[in-house]
Amino acid sequence: MPARTAAPFDLESLKTALPKIFDQVQNTTANHQKNYIALYKLQSDAANIKQAVQRGKSDKLIGEKAFESAFVDMLLRVLPLKKGTPVADRSIKFMTGYAKFITEKDLEERQKNGLDEEDDTTSERFLSYLLNFLLDGCNAKDKIVRFRVCQCIADTIVHFGSIDEDLYARLRATLLDRLRDKEATIRTQAAAALSKLSFTEDLDELDEDDTPILEVVLDALAYDTSPDVRKAIIQNLPPGPAILPPILERSRDVDGGIRKLVYSSILEKFCLPPDEASTGTIGFTHPKALSIAQREMIVRNGLGDREASVKAAAAQLLGHWVDVVRNDGSKKEDRDARGNVKKEVSEETIEDLLAFLGLFDLAEGKVADDALSSVFETRIDIYEHLEFPEEYWSELTPERAFLARAFIDKCVAKNDRNKVDSTLPVTTAMAFRIQDAYNALVQQIHDDEALMQDPEADEDEEAHAAREDARLDRELTIGELLKLGVNLDYGDEIGRRKMTQLVRGMLAQDVLPEPLLQNALDVLRVLTPDEKDLIRVVVEVVHELRDPVDEDGEEKGDVTADPDESMTELGSPKKQPRIPQPPKPVSEMTPEEKARADAVDLRCLALCIGMLERVNGTFEDNVTLEGILTELIVPSVKRREMALREKGLISLGLCCLIARRMALSSFQLFLSQVSSAPEVIKVRVLQIIFDILMVHEGVFLSADNPNGEKIIEFLLQLLGSEESDRVQALLCVGISKLMLAGMVADERVLSTLVLVYISPETAENQELRQCLSYFFPVYAYSSAANQDRMRKIFIPLYEQLTKAYAEWDGDDMVSPAQIAFMFVDWTDPVHASQAVKGLRKGAEKDPIHIHFAQDILKALFSADYDKEERKVLIQMLGKLTLPDEVDDDKVRVLKLLINNLRTRRPPRDTTAKNALAKFDAAIAKKYEKQLENFSDEELRKLEELKDLFEFLDDIIPLEDDEDEPPKKGRKRRSMSVATETTTASTATDRSPPPSPRGKGKAKRRRLSQSDDESDDDDNDDNRTEASRASPAATPVPTRAMPKRNAAEKSKKATHKAFEPIVISSDDEDDDEDDEDEDNEATPVAKSRANGARRPPPPPPRSSRLKQEAQIDEDIDDMLDDDAGNVTKDSIMDSSEDEEEDEVDNIL
Fold first, then answer.
1. What is the pLDDT of residue 1109?
2. 506 with 559: CB under 8 angstroms?
3. Cβ pair 299, 370 in contact under 8 A
4. pLDDT tens digits, residue range 118-147?
């Protein structure tokens, strides 16, 4: 029987076979591999169907076209599905997986059939067609389609074998265009695709105008606002040294997830080569492949991060460094299931830790200390088994001394006394080791000095650098041993005496490097029983340094004597008292002697500073300090040499901290130094001033001390006039501390700090911005009184900011809307309760935001604000937190203000109107029961609301045809009859813009109590601005000479003097400047909301209209008679000098 032949493949079956496959793969990923094979078989069968054309000379690939059409049809059904749809995500994953599958099959066929790279295959043609189709969809209008298309490209691009140059150019241009898409999800997929494509680009083939893909991607990594985009770039960039610097910069990213990703997925992952076949032995992020600066930046940023997850990732990285740092990463450890080393840690681990410490500069900062402490925390196996045998101490190096000291400090911090006792050596033995190291240092210093004085010595730079490194290593070793000496057991009398004599002898020698003075004083503080003995020893050392022994006397630098001989009870050496010799006059000194004396004084001042920093008693209890003060400190303050003067001021300031009377007498000296001193001295003096104010609070800043206000005014004036960024930041730090401690509660100081914080002039002062960005929430959340203080300063501060914002030309100023919502957050009692973690009770009942809403609503009655500024205030109302329980009267007052605002001064734009209506509905719903019997008449009977109703009665409703007041910042010269000496009826009076119609007429200037009334006289609407500048023939009945208030004038002048930031436009013309001067001289009556006196009630409307019509008639007649004499100056300008003289006499 003949064999059955297979039926020919039917292309129509693709329309049913592909939907079945995609129906299966969208439900689960478990069957994807099976369906790869099924789909590949369908593609192979379809590819075999061809149609002969051109008389058999070529074939038409109708089977491949049919398969491509059917596949694209399935793809089109997935593209419109939004992100997060499971069936769509599984289908996309199947498509990208199939691209990888057919690429691998294509490689096998090429090897099997021996095809060249130039020969096309079915898989390559299919992938090229698919890529062209996807690129067409990158410009789709639907953002979901653009996202899905870019997702497919990003997932499949790594599986393409090769594509032609034209398709590559189109792909590159399209992805670069999508990297600028407004949707972050699309930019994320485009960034991922470009990151994968960057390593395949040949820079030699680019045109001159083309930017390399890697450069574009790294630019997006640094500046794209979406964290997802930056995360996609980090995950998909090809690993290599070229991307390391921009990756390390992301360790300071604003997003915590990205910072963690840098440590876990990049720095730790690529410490070692990814595969064993790699030729290198270390990865590009191996600690030895990094510079010291990069390693320290990694440790500093990681361990100093605020988020615990980032800290944990950085700590895990450092633990990994300990394992890979030695032997170029080739060392391997046997670990258990928890990742701990199975074998007991011994000398091998010590060598690993020493190599780990070799990665850092031990002499600079605390980076190495923090890194080693983190290793002890995360690697418990190292901490538990680390031991230091006796031979460890025989050959001390900086790393060995540092490791032992850090381990002891960690044991003390954990209060593990057993480990401390088992690790610390005997006190006497440690004293001899310190002595040997110090003597070696002294010998090297003497040798170096002799070498420098030898004229025949010829030393190259390398030898000099080697000697310098050796000296620094000895200094570092001695410093670490002295730090370790603080924790030694001084119960052994012999060891205590030996250490006392050693430390005292080291302090008495001028060859001891100054950085080691602090460490030696720490040991001496432990050795002395109380502060008086510490002061006595240091004073003796100072006298010895300033009055050295004769050459034939005892050698001053001998620290090798027997400690058991000639010792006092406290362990200090007995010496015969010497009568101190008076110092030689400066005029009789040679230049060498003067330089020597200055060096000794600097050394003595450094000793005094270190001693005073360790004294907590009062100056009066330690009379020994009197001699040092008069003989050393005060003369140093009077010196002109900068170094001596600086240390003298620091010493005097430390004395003032423990002597109240001295602080009172010396405070004026420090204030005088601030004004004229250079920046270095100014910084030191300001630190002293703030320290004195913090320590002696009741003396300077108490409520009954009149000088406290002067001190605050001086600091504010200095903050406003200082140009140095460092001094400005220091002033903000000091003032913030005073306010946070409750020592300063002036609202003006708080407003000044806010102005400094948002000023564009401080945008580059990162230290100042960082300080204040931390201070404001901490200050506000620390107490309800502070939040209420923040609430009170907002409205006047908002008015000032809106004016400054309108006049500022730059783009780097914070907008009023941002400031407004920051104040909403700072005054939120719920946020405060969450910040202090439950320490503040009853936050949900705090009515501070009810009071804030009342302040905002009262401010909205003012016509000073333009449409945008009113909209910001109204939108703030919806962000306020309404308390669950509130007093009935407060709710009713709030409702009363809302109703009057909606009827008398309603917002003009739809957004603000809807926001106000929404807030009104929220109030009505939340406090429904309390507002059931709401009545204006009932509230009028309450005596405490009398002022509120007087304020509301003064508000004149705006008519619908009345124009919005002009925006602030567009300054115009006032041409009205009302001059700078005219008493304004309200604080909201503004001159309307000039009318474009008519030449000799102007819109009528109303002289009633409010400018908000509409005018029914059509003839008066066509008058020009010139009519307001004409001199009046008859006096106006409502005009009155201003009653200048000397106190108010003084207050304005003081506010101007202490205003820290003056934000103004640089291109204002002279007319605007003149107008500013006129406006400053104009006494404007304040509204009732600001506590001003209520103006007299307005006359009846008919009477006002007749009176105004008569006045306009007189002005028209005057214009007709004397039209040529119209000037732009006000009629009262001539009396300006007289009024100023009058005000000066009052002041």
1. 59
2. yes
3. yes
4. 677 888 889 999 999 999 999 999 999 999
Domain assignment present for residue 700? The answer is no
**Contact, 668 vs 675, CB < 8 A?**
no
**Which among 800, 723, 716, 730 has a CA at the least distance from the CA of 758?**
800
Write out pLDDT tens, residues 1055-1067: 343 344 333 334 4
Closest CA to 388 of 372, 400, 397: 400
Q: Could you give phi then psi for residue 269, rounded to 5 degrees? A: -65, -35
Instruction: Report H helices in 26-61.
Output: 32-47
Q: Tell me the sheet residues that pair with 341.
A: 335
In a domain, residue 513? The reply is yes
For residues 478 and 438, the answer to whether their CB atoms sit within 8 Å is yes
Task: Return the pLDDT at 1040.
Answer: 39
Residues facing residue 573 across a β-bridge: 567
In a domain, 475, yes or no: yes
C-beta separation of 985 from 1012 below 8 A: no
Per the listing, tokens 């190096």 go with 397
Least-confidence region, from 105-114, 497-506, 838-847, 890-899? 838-847
Residue 271 has what DSSP assignment? S
| Interatomic CA distance for residues 184 and 192, integer angstroms | 12
Q: Which residues contact 285 (CB under 8 A, 6 or more apart)?
A: 244, 266, 267, 268, 269, 270, 271
Domain that holds residue 398: 391-452+467-527
Distance in Å from the first CA to the final CA of the chain = 129
d(CA 113, CA 102): 16
Contacts of 623 (CB under 8 A, 6+ apart): none
Residue 335 backbone phi and psi in degrees, to 5: -125, 160
SS3 534: helix
Is residue 534 within 8 Å of 611, Cβ to Cβ? yes
Instruction: Report the alpha-carbon angle 714-719-725, nearest 5.
Output: 145
In a domain, 516, yes or no: yes
Token reading at 777:
């929430």
**Separation CA 962–CA 1006 (nearest Å):** 14
Which helix (H) or strand (E) is 730 found in, with range? helix 725-740
pTM for the whole structure: 0.72
What is the per-residue pLDDT across 222-263, written as a single tens digit (0 to 9) for each? 999 999 999 999 999 988 888 999 999 999 999 999 999 999
In the structure encoding, which two tokens stand for residue 232, read together?
Answer: 């996609």
The CA distance from 14 to 45, in Å, is 10
Comparing CA positions, the residue from 291, 355, 277, 299 lying closest to residue 323 is 355
Q: For residue 85, give both structure tokens.
A: 């749809």
Query: Shortest CA distance to 500 belongs to which of 541, 471, 472?
Result: 541
Q: Is 53 helix (H, G, I), strand (E, B) or coil?
A: strand
60's enclosing H/E stretch is strand 58-60
Instruction: Report the domain count for the chain.
Output: 1
